[in-house]
Structure formats: C-alpha cells, structure tokens
Amino acid sequence: MRTGKLCVPNTTKTMKAIVQRVTKATVTVGEEQITSIGRGLCVLLGISVEDTQKDAEYIVRKILNLRLFEDETGRAWSKSVMDRDFEVLCVSQFTLQCILKGNKPDFHSAMPAELARPFYSSILENMRSTYKPELIKDGLFGAKMQVHIQNDGPVTIELISPTGPVDPKQLSKQEKQQQRKEKMRSKGPSESGREKGALRSRQDPNASSGAEGDVSSEREP
Prior knowledge:
This protein is an alpha/beta fold and about 220 residues long. The protein has a domain at about 15-165: D-tyrosyl-trna(Tyr) Deacylase, Chain: A, CATH 3.50.80.10. It has four helices and eight strands, in the order E-E-E-H-E-E-E-H-E-E-H-H. Strands 1, 2, 3, 4, 7 and 8 form a six-stranded mixed beta sheet that branches. The chain has a two-stranded antiparallel ribbon with strand order 5-6. The protein is globular.
C-alpha cells in the first residue's frame, strides 16, 4: 500500500491579468460599440476575494511599465505603453478566477460584484492618475460584452500579483531598484556596465549575454 501526502491544487487567490499587445481593440454591448482603442494594450483583469490595494498597485505598475513595444529605432522589447503614449483598454474578467471542479468552472474565488465594482473602479483611477487619463479606456462592468481584440505579434503576457504578506521595507527596496533601472535605461548603458559584461565574457566564453531585445536577459521586481 502506498502512503504519502495528498496532492492538493494550489488555490491561493491572487489578482490576475492577461495583457495583450494590440493594434486595435473594441468593446461592444448588444449592437452598440461602447469603446475602442488603437495601438496599445488590452487588459483582461480578474479580481479575487482576497485582493488588496497592494495587489492592485502591483498589477497597475506592471501593466504600465511592461516593455512590450519597440523603440524609435525598431529595437524590440524596449518601450512601455507609457513611453509610446499608447492606449490601454481594461476589461473586468471574473472568469480568470475560475477553479475547475471536474469539467465545471467554479467562480467562488472571484470577488463578489458588489465589492468588485468599486475596487475595479479604484484600479482604473490608479491607472489614470499614474498615466494620461484620456488614454485609459474601460469596458462596461457586469455587462455581457463582445471584446474584439486584434493581437499584435501575437504578444500575450500573464500577470499574477505576489502572494502572502508584503514586507514594507522589502517593497521599498524593490521600488528603489526599479527606479534606478528606469533611470539607467533612459541614460543608456553605462561604461561600468559594459566593462562588467566584457569581464563576464572573458571569464566564461560560453556564457550567453542574451540576444538583443531578449526580455529574459534582464530581471525586474
């Protein structure tokens, strides 16, 4: 007889977002088109019953700073939606919080509509206050929508907010590191950075520095 621990699926509840780079996206309710964007990001956002403002802040920061666009010279994965003044269409999507019970979807992990509505509105306000409010578009919360997405690439990124309690000191440290990275990117590669890269190459000639534009070659919090 075999003994051992029972394998239990991870049911930790976190905020989830599916971010798609698009050339255009529209939201229609019934026969009426209620909103549309040109080039930018279409975000499907799923809020869980356990989400807090910390989760919202993390997701908003990532959405607006993901480097999914090319720069003016055509170099890929180097600019964010804010860098390029592109639009963002955000659509509430409770089905992202689905837990399958056999083949039947269960949505009890999603935040109830009466709580999710003001919480979702606060996320949109956060985006608008961080970026340009006129470039943040929205679907119609709680409505049956037809979302038409013209994915560019295709490029699709899944975001999940961190789980567990957040240490304020660690969070502050991560924020400062992120700010330093953004400043360094705006100034271009430093001499010391190039020297370190050359030193690593001499030490390990087989090590790869990452292809140009490869997002896996850099780490961000």
